[in-house]
Hints:
The chain is an alpha/beta fold. It is built from 10 helices and 10 strands. The chain has helices at residues 33-37, 44-65, 85-102, 111-117, 162-172, 179-187, 210-224, 241-269, 286-296, 316-327, and strands at 2-7, 12-19, 23-31, 75-81, 106-110, 130-135, 140-145, 152-156, 275-279, 302-304. The strands form 2 sheets. The protein has a 5-stranded mixed β-sheet with strand order 3-2-1-4-5, sandwiched between helices. It has a 5-stranded mixed β-sheet with strand order 8-7-6-9-10, with helices on both faces. It is globular. The structure holds 5'-O-[(R)-(carboxyoxy)(hydroxy)phosphoryl]adenosine and zinc ion. The site of zinc ion has 6 residues, from helix 4.
Amino acid sequence: MKILAIESSCDETAAAVIEDGVKVLSNVVVSQVDIFAAYGGVIPEVAARSHLEAILPVVKQALSDAGLTKDDIDYIAVTYAPGLLGSLLIGTLTARMLAILWQKPLYAVHHLKSHIYANWLAGEEPQFPLLALVVSGGHTQIIYMEEHNKFEIIGTTRDDAVGECFDKVAKILGLPYPGGPSVARVAEQGSNKRYKLPIPRVEGLDFSFSGLKTAVLRAVQAELGLPITTPSYELSKHLSRQQVADFAAVFQETAAEILVEKMENALQAHPEALSVVTAGGVSANQALRQKAIERLSDANTVVFFPELRYSGDNAAMVGAAAYFEIISGVKPTDPYSLNIAPRTPII
Ligand code: KG4
Ligand code: ZN
């Protein structure tokens, strides 16, 4: 079974062909990261226009990289939620049109579900029941899955997502967008012992990251002996390279600790979980990966990470998620009426 999958929820235009759910025949990603590095963040209007320009060449490339034509494709899959409105519209309209013209069944996939299913592209299959730690630019959630396509959100952030926090801390430290990889890169040269940041105490399995971002801001202001009224964009020019590296290291360590502590609690609440899967852009973070392996894996539980090329936004994961819907008997969606849902939670 071959699925042509399309992803355009944020600032990556992506298409992939997936065979039998887990074999990636092609995976094309055109990133707009260079455009948005100049602005320090994504501009939705610009993202939508870039998708419009890139989407058809990207789909064409995915087919030709796989050595296939439209006749070899059995299904079309596309991200319909959540994400930026204009970005989602370009991908879904393209997929709707291809499904109608080529007469293929269409599957609409939730973006976070796709991130979770990126773990199925790594070779070994995660086992159910499982706990998923979803950590992206827009979401931070712990999701319990008893079986395929069954999602129970058991923890969520009450304010910022962890990826957003990486991006904001990067700005305070004067590091380029996207913040996660920048923070991780400079943290390698830093010590996570020089400064201390508080771990927020949030009830149950929920998270809070806005306080951590402010704690970094206050710590930087204090280190420089500047008043708390000093705007964040004024700070980085006063910091030495070593100070930036040390702040990046302690922030990364604290963010990873917050995530892993909550996952430990989640595992205590669900000792029957056979796998822990990590999902979303922040799952690329090596400090998080190391801590998660050390603290969450035991004789009962295996910890999974997506391959690095599938941890950020891509379409291969959309194809994997669609495959498990198809083989579970989920019905295709109507290509004439599929709408986007920029804010809907995982279902
Ligand atoms: O899943 P993703 O590519 O897009 C969304 O669905 O949001 O996640 C993007 C987020 C950004 O906030 C980015 O800074 C973060 O993932 N990120 C990282 C790393 N690579 C990407 N955060 C920490 N460490 C990384 N290595
Ligand atoms: Zn994503």
